[in-house]
Amino acid sequence: MRPSASGLPVAEPAPSDGRPLLSSVAPTPEAPRELTARALGMGLLIGGLLAVTNVYMGLKTGWWESGSVTAAVLGFSALATVSRRRGSPYTPLENNVTQTAASAVGAMPAAAGLLGALPALSLLGLSVPGWGVVAWSVALGALGVLAAHVLRRRLVVEEALPFPTGTATAELITAMHAPTQPEVRTGHRGWLLAAVAGVSVAITALRDAFKVLPGMTAMPGSLGGVPAASLTWGIGWSPMLLAIGMMTGLRLGLSMLAGAVVGWGVLAPWLEGSGILKAAGYEGDMVTWLTWPGVGLLVGSALAALAVQARDFLRAAKDVGSLGRADALPRWAVGVGLAACALAVGLGAFVFGLSVPYMLLALVLVLPLCAVCARGAGQTDVSPVSQMGQITQVVFGALLPGAMAPNVTSGAVTSGAAAQTGVSMWSLKSGHLLGASPRRQLVAQLVGVLAGSLVAVPAYLLLAKAYGLGSQALPAPFATQFRAVAELAVRGLAGLPPHAGLAGGVAAVVGAALTLAAKSRAAKWLPLPLAMGIGFILPAFYAVSICLGAVGMALARRRWPDATDRNVAPLGAGAIAGESLTGVLIAALMALGLMQQG
Length: 598
Fold this sequence. Notes:
- It is a single chain.
- Strand 2 (222-223) and strand 3 form a beta hairpin.
- This protein is mostly helical.
- The chain is globular.
- Helix 6 crosses helix 16 and helix 12 crosses helix 14.
- It has 22 helices and four strands.
- A two-stranded antiparallel ribbon has the order 1-4.
């Protein structure tokens, strides 16, 4: 997203805490309603749906959505007309609380490490009890929210960084609540989303519950003498994969397909034909080998991006060093932060195997690395969450050689808090433009952290039990990345499959080169290394299906540009939500013994 040049009307002077007031969204001279039960409740409900969706989508593909814009639209659609009829209009500041709470809830799967670190620990053989995961996620989520509020004045008020997602959310809320805004369009989007979600529910149920549809329709023929079906080439019966392609665009879809072609179309047949691997197929040695060039692309891209962002580390140090009394949290929030630190230290030592001194070191790294992510979210709308975790893993690899699980845990601390910080900063930017109270947003976000933990963790545990982490149904690509970085940091190249180290090194150079070339004129013709790397790790039919969705949307946009741009968000959100919620429901029925697995 790019920051809009439309300009939101700002009344001067600003309040003492630096908040602008938007005359266009102040319906009466009285202070408008803001942190109300209906606004917070709707935000938690929408956020719960986002959290379940992000757990399912993140474990399948590695992607997740903050949901700020979606939550604002859904909140307005659900409450605006009804509240107006009851004589108590739903205000823009209430809508902001709704999206603030919803995005805080929706970010919890990433903040808790459910998409990367926790599955990686499970694959390494460390079993963490459900209560421990919930408590861990509350601690990290709270630290991420508090870090955002500590950095708010510096980045949002003084430097006025654009935070494009936050700006777009504020502009959307302002437009929806304008007196001349027709209600038909938001209502149409709601009905379209519901209809698409219904179709997605039906397809998912026919595939996973009734077994009428296959997970994949295999491609006929063979590649290099190996059947295409055994190399996972085909088209997936997944509305979610098509929707991801529709929403992420043609370049990402083609990049992911390019990764799958190199990995599953070229290297995999060669590996099987040469006899290098003992067990072929996705769940054999093949995916283990292909993980290394895939992770090489991801890590090479991350290192190059960090080199480009070197100034951000210096600025982050200045951000932390310049914090003063004006940035201080309320006393009760300081108490929450201290309690979260104590909880994290205790859990790290007694549940995750990271001793108290090393856990304290990880917590020391949280604020400066969260500052890097916050600045990235403000300047480019991209929060480099996984890179912060990888930096921490490298540091702890040197400090704790031979300790795999503690290495992953250390990365989980910083990446988890940073994930919530980035999303919180977008919400704070939106609130700043709308004249919202930061302290009321803080309350909404902390309540969202607690609610998100209680929703996301059970969904994760159900999915892991029903489908199996690292399986073709639930590949968990970022768990693979966490585990691979831990192995490299702790063991070096020892123990890698034959030639996998060389492939990973070459891929890292390619990933770095593509990232450094991203600012050149040829950038739009070059593949995205992140998507290419994931194409190596996921089954090939994931890339094919996502690319089909992207191509279809590109063709539709050429033929019907306005209608496509208007409807792509509800189409994609409906398809993703329908499959995600149905997948979690089926997992719950399996766990209760009401549906047979397999």
